[in-house]
Amino acid sequence: MFTGIVQGIATVESLDARPGLTTFVIRFPEGSLEGVTTGASVAINGTCLTVTAQQDNQLWFDAMQETLRLTTLGELAEGSQVNFERAARIGDEIGGHLLSGHIHCTARVVSREQPENNCTLTFEVPEAWQKYLFPKGYIAVNGASLTIGDVEANRFNVHLIPETLRATTFSDIHPGDRVNIEVDSQTQTIVDTLARMGYDRPAG
């Protein structure tokens, strides 16, 4: 499990793309990998990946075809920067909301507005996922736990403070870019349960 509190920015050192499998070598900031061992889980742009090897400040990860299809990891290249979070441990403070690291869909950045000391990003998700969007609800974008601002059909926005921009890769995403989305599990459970009970159908 993860908390959605991004712990820093890592850099793709190299990648080896083979049929159905891509191996990523990612370099992490000094001191951020203490206690990490082979087999550990790390969220890369919100996607839970398993450490397959390590050396100094570098970790190796394998991403299979289905992961590449459902996420933006297949768009990464040498030099790409990514958000990372190590798996939460019992007793850790939950500063965001609980995440599984399983990406539901990708979203497209529709607009970026950046008045002084503020940044508002608007995203568009596939229509099938708009039913999980609620103003003031939780959502994870590239692994960061965020509060939804306004919702209009299958579009929503988030408001980012300077610290969020500093600590994540959001400072470098622009209209047309794609991001990974994990909807809030509690919201998904409630919406799906009500749908099974017939409450999503028009009255009459």
Please tell me about this protein's structure:
This protein is mainly beta and 204 residues long. The protein has two domains: 8-86, Elongation Factor Tu (Ef-tu), domain 3 (Beta Barrel); 105-196, Elongation Factor Tu (Ef-tu), domain 3 (Beta Barrel). 12% of the residues lie in helices and 40% in strands. The protein is built from three helices and 13 strands; from the N terminus they run βββββαβββββββαβα. It has helices at residues 65-70, 162-167, 185-196, and strands spanning 8-18, 21-27, 41-44, 47-55, 58-64, 81-86, 105-113, 119-124, 138-141, 144-147, 151-152, 155-160, 178-183. Strands 10-9-13-7-8-12-11 form a seven-stranded antiparallel beta sheet. Strands 1-2-5-4-3-6 form a six-stranded antiparallel barrel. The longest helix is centred in the C-terminal third of the chain and has 12 residues, at 185-196. The model has no long low-confidence stretch (mean pLDDT 92).
Essential attributes:
seven-stranded antiparallel β-sheet, 2 domains, 204 residues, 12% helix, 3 helices, Elongation Factor Tu (Ef-tu), domain 3, mainly beta, six-stranded antiparallel beta barrel
